[in-house]
Design brief:
This protein has about 325 residues and is of the alpha/beta class. The chain folds into 2 domains: about 90 residues, Enolase-like, N-terminal domain (Enolase-like, domain 1, 2-Layer Sandwich); about 210 residues, Enolase-like C-terminal domain (TIM Barrel). The chain is built from 10 helices and 13 strands. A 7-stranded parallel sheet has the order 5-6-7-8-9-10-11. Strands 3-2-1-13 form a 4-stranded antiparallel sheet, with helices on both faces.
């Protein structure tokens, strides 16, 4: 890779902490510009990602061994080719609908229902009793609503068993999956699946995971999508493709990848993705272009991944 690399630093501000391990509300990332194409690097250090300083050093030295860096460069290459051709990457691509990503209480779930969502993904594990009470209350009012729970490995095996047991049969039947509820080497994984029949999902270390999971959550910002699709076919997984809760550039790249996977690997991808995450952040020019948070994807106008005028207006710094 001999082309010069330009960067733009950004900060997204969330209304509250976005995962079960951190209360941080300011989230820093990088946009990269290579040969006219844009990519996004948005590390989540609390989940084990490298720091921005580390990925910047990789970019300066043209090192692509880290998945975050490699994926962003690939995004920039794909985006740049489309921009130079004067076409949108979304032409002829059907993006699947999405679940609502919930960070908050009953008010956020009610907003999602009003917007037309019938599946919600909720960050869980910080306060299990309160979360269970909320789920039971919503289930009583909206028994058709389906749930996906993301724990970021914060529960122990005993806590997980008690959580699932306390759901009751009716609510358990509406659980699409439990994502990373505890460490993958905890025997509770197998017990929960065998005793309660609740599907399990994994989103970290997907390439080395086994067949104890029914779902794999993949993020184009981090994962080699084609390689994971091949493994999913061997393991019998269903794939749920999501954004990395990152900049709209990264969000749009995830949406484009979801549409391409559905076309290339028909039937492998779950029909409900997790792409509508821009509503987790305070508005800015890019987020405003994404439109309302709704189940159906709406592609931004422009060439490549869109946002042509906004990208031109950014302050770009050449890496040296």
């Amino acid at each position: 890779m001999s082309e010069p690399i330009y960067i733009h630093r950004y900060t997204l501000h969330s209304r509250r902490g976005l995962n079960s391990r951190s209360d941080r509300t300011a989230h820093e990332g990088l946009l990269i510009l290579i040969n006219g194409g844009v990519g996004c690097i948005h590390p989540w250090e609390v989940l084990g990602d490298p720091s921005l300083d580390e990925v910047l050093d990789d970019l300066k030295n043209r090192r692509l061994f880290r998945p975050l860096v490699r994926a962003a460069v690939k995004c920039a290459m794909v985006d740049g080719a489309a921009r130079r051709a004067g076409v949108s990457l979304f032409d002829g691509v059907r993006v699947p609908r999405s679940h609502a990503t919930i960070v908050g209480g009953r008010d956020k779930i009610d907003e999602a229902l009003t917007a037309g969502f019938d599946v919600v993904k909720m960050k869980a594990g910080r306060d299990a009793p309160a979360e269970l009470q909320l789920m039971h209350e919503v289930h009583a009012d909206h028994p058709e609503l389906r749930w996906r729970l993301d724990f970021n490995n914060v529960l122990g095996g005993g806590e997980l068993r008690e959580f699932v047991k306390s759901m009751g049969e009716s609510l358990r039947s509406k659980i699409d999956f439990l994502e990373d509820p505890c460490r993958t080497d905890d025997p509770a994984w197998q017990g929960i699946r065998e005793v309660y029949g609740v599907p399990l999902a994994i989103d970290r270390d997907v390439p080395i995971a086994g067949n104890q999971f029914r779902y794999a959550v993949i993020k184009p910002a981090l994962d080699d999508v084609t390689a994971v699709c091949a493994k999913a076919m061997l393991e019998g997984w269903r794939l749920v493709l999501t954004s990395y809760m990152d900049h709209p550039i990264g969000q749009c790249y995830a949406a484009w990848c979801a549409g391409k996977v559905e076309k290339r690997f028909y039937g492998l991808l779950d029909p409900v993705a997790g792409l509508m995450t821009h509503g987790l952040f305070e508005p800015n020019a890019f987020i405003d272009r994404m439109g309302p948070v709704q189940p159906e994807w709406r592609s931004p106008v422009g060439t490549g991944l869109g946002f042509d005028d906004l990208i031109d207006e950014l302050n770009w710094e050449m890496l040296r």
